[in-house]
Amino acid sequence: MSDMIRGRLMNILIPLIAIFLAFLAGAVIMLFSGNDPIQGYAALISGVVGEPYDFGETLMRMTPLIFSGLAVAFAFRTGLLNIGVEGQLIVGWFTSVFVGLIIDVPMIIHLPLAIAAGALAGALWGFVPGILKAKFEVHEVIVTIMMNYIAMHVVNSIIRGQLLESGQRTGFINPSASLESQFLSELTQFSRLHWGFFIAIGACIVMWFILWKTKRGFELRSVGYNKNASLYAGMNVKGNIVASMSISGAFAGVGGAMVGLGTYQYANILPSFTNIGFDGIAVALLGASTSLGIFLAAFLFGGLQQGANMMQAGAGVAPELVEIIIALIIFFVASGYIIRWALGRMFSKKEEK
Amino acid sequence: MDVVLQILYIIVPAGLIAATPLMLTAMGGLFSERSGVVNIGLEGLMVMGAFGGIVGTLMFESFGFGALSPWMGILFAVLISAIFALFHAVASISFRADQIVSGVALNFLALGLTVFIVREIFDRGQTDTINTRIFRTNVPLLSDIPVIGDLFFSRIYVTSYIALFIIAVVWYVVFKTPFGLRLRAVGEHPMAADTMGIKVQRMRYIGVMLSGAFAGAGGSVYAVTIAGNFASGTIVGQGFMALAALIFGKWTPFGAMGAAIFFGFAMALSTSAQQLPGLQNIPQVFFLILPYVLTILALAGFVGKAEPPKALNQPYTKGSR
Question: What average pLDDT score do residues B1-12 get?
């Protein structure tokens, strides 16, 4: 077997093995807590594909996950770990809703404007750690974590001070900025599925195009592989770092806009993080930072989160089991070294025979 | 002058109380990061600690330990958080997983696992409230000193003093003992340490497990003094703030302590600034984001450059160059 084919095979095998191991661990936990794993997983699956409504909600849930996954993956291709997707998504959510609220123009202008506003806000939130990394060599992970909290507190305080309509949220956005789709909703028994799903598919293609078909994308990946070689080849490494974080933030910001303009139609005071951004790390890892992989991983995690409700109702399993499974998938994918090692041993033994 | 003192009598104890869990958790982060392992998972370890503190206290209460229960609960939390930290240790040290990703997973896992168990035991999303909390006390004699007594020795939890004492011990251990020297050597230059016969992997395992123990202490102290019960919203961000304190304090025990106390004051001010003359015009959000903004500025070198241990975030493979 040539090394190249083996490498490809490993890239597909490791995520699958990681998923399998995590579900296995989930089953063991269910057994220990006195639940029936088969019944539990049956309920989980029926909670995703059982009714058109569930499937619609799953697609709705995976929409922002695709964006957060793309955001993490994009930065990762340049060798950066963007833990700040959560904060970038929050400011994107808020800014897009803000534009949706205060402006009143025809949809053809309003909707793109609102989404672009979300992208811009997210890009700005990504630009700050990017420029700090490029200029002062500050590690982006810590800065982005701090930026997450700043995003949450600032957005909450603006909503609380200026835009509070009822309870903990702003008013509903103008219909001209809404991604709501009566057609998709009726198709899925009135789920909250909206046009954003197709924008997300488009975003997958955009990321693939930027990374693999443009000069900028080549430079970004080159910086990710080897900073010094890229510098020697005359690339602007610092500029690429800033660009990568900003584009990554823009993806996250659009993801936030999908939540604000599509799912909820408003922004609300967040008592804690949405976790969509953090889940993006899992999505990107599992999807091996490729567009198709991210789409599939987002479907898995969206399905897990949607199916968790049915696990509770149908099999009496606490929905937090799904969070445990997601965490374990991250652990196992991240520990790919040991899976690779184990598989390598198995393969080499077979070849000896 | 009296007004100012009245304000300080409220703010200083409140700040110290808010700072205590941060200080303890930051000490945990110090052990892990000084050994060369990034620990984004402090938040999750604190969640585990808060969970262990409450469940442990409830357990020991039912065994009839009475007022001792919360102290036993804290010990229980220290133990299970140290064990829980093994996830991070095994993944990032033995399996060479990305330390940051592994830490993120640890945070997810802690929240999922604890709330799952709480639901299984209590049939709802939060635990019962513990009966035997650790309450605020006045220190005998010292609290009678005018001004200082009211500022630093009145209406405060004993745990805060214990935390200050522990920090002194941590400083001694890390900077004055052979163990501390080895720990730091492993974090700065693992290959040189290995050459000198120090077991790099073992030191890192110890560092990460100690981080679990201390973060567990921090989380459980928060739970048994301030919160009183455990739910998914008990620990929201304190772990990350402790990490910030560690960085702002430049990876030293007393630096981290100072940063934690400073952050504690910012937190106390954010909740009580509205009642204070001269401060009520400053929006609350400034106090809320102050710790995070300062950390970013510290890292960027505006408030004195923060230099991490050199081998931080690098897995060590024997024989590599």
Answer: 75
Q: For B50-85, how does the pLDDT look when each residue is reduced to its tens digit (9 = 90+)?
A: 999 999 999 999 998 888 899 999 999 999 999 999
Cβ pair B300:A136 closer than 8 A: yes
Q: Which one of A128, A149, A157, A160 would you mutate to disrupt binding with B, by most B Cβ within 10 Å of its Cβ?
A: A149
CB atoms closer than 10 angstroms to residue A201 = 14
Residue B319 belongs to some domain of the structure: no
Distance CA A155, CA A93 (A): 10
* Percent of chain B's residues with pLDDT above 90: 49
In chain A, the residue whose alpha carbon lies closest to the alpha carbon of B293 is A146
Euclidean distance between CA atoms B246 and A34, whole angstroms: 41
Structural domain spans, chain A: 36-316
Residue of B nearest to A34 (CA): B120
Cβ neighbours of B240 in A, within 8 Å: 145, 149
The string of pLDDT tens digits covering residues B87-126 is 999 999 998 888 988 998 999 999 999 999 999 888 888 8
Q: How far apart are the CA of B210 and the nearest CA of chain A, in angstroms? A: 21
Q: Å from A352 to nearest chain B CA?
A: 26
A322 at the B interface (CB within 8 A)? yes
User: Is B245 part of any domain?
Assistant: no
Work out the pLDDT band at B209, boundaries 50, 70, 90.
Answer: very high
Total domains, chain B: 1
User: Is A320's CB within 8 Å of B112's CB?
Assistant: yes
Q: Look at B102 and A153 and tell me if their CB atoms are within 8 Å.
A: no
pLDDT of residue B286: 86
- The verdict on residue B306 lying in a domain is no
Find the CB nearest A334 among B98, B120, B301: B98
Residue B97 belongs to what domain range?
2-235
Q: How far apart are CA A13 and CA A9, in angstroms?
A: 6
A338 touches chain B (CB under 8 A): yes
Per residue, the 3-state secondary structure of chain A, as one string, reads CCHHHHHHHHHHHHHHHHHHHHHHHHHHHHHHCCCCHHHHHHHHHHHHHCCHHHHHHHHHHHHHHHHHHHHHHHHHHCCCCCCCHHHHHHHHHHHHHHHHHHCCCCHHHHHHHHHHHHHHHHHHHHHHHHHHHHHHCCCHHHHHHHHHHHHHHHHHHHHHHHHCCECCECCCCCHHHCCECHHHHHHCCCCCCECHHHHHHHHHHHHHHHHHHCHHHHHHHHHHHCHHHHHHCCCCHHHHHHHHHHHHHHHHHHHHHHHHHHHHCCCECCCCCCCHHHHHHHHHHHCCCCHHHHHHHHHHHHHHHHHHHHHHHHHCCCCHHHHHHHHHHHHHHHCHHHHHHHHHHHHHHHHHC
Q: Does A334 touch chain B (CB under 8 A)?
A: yes
CB contact under 8 A, A331 and B236: no
Q: ipTM of the predicted structure?
A: 0.86
- Contact list, A150 vs chain B (CB under 8 Å): 289, 292-293
Does B146 have pLDDT greater than 90? no
CATH fit for domain A36-316, picks 1.10.10, 2.60.40, 1.20.1740, 1.10.3470: 1.10.3470
Q: A320 and chain B: CB distance < 8 Å anywhere?
A: yes
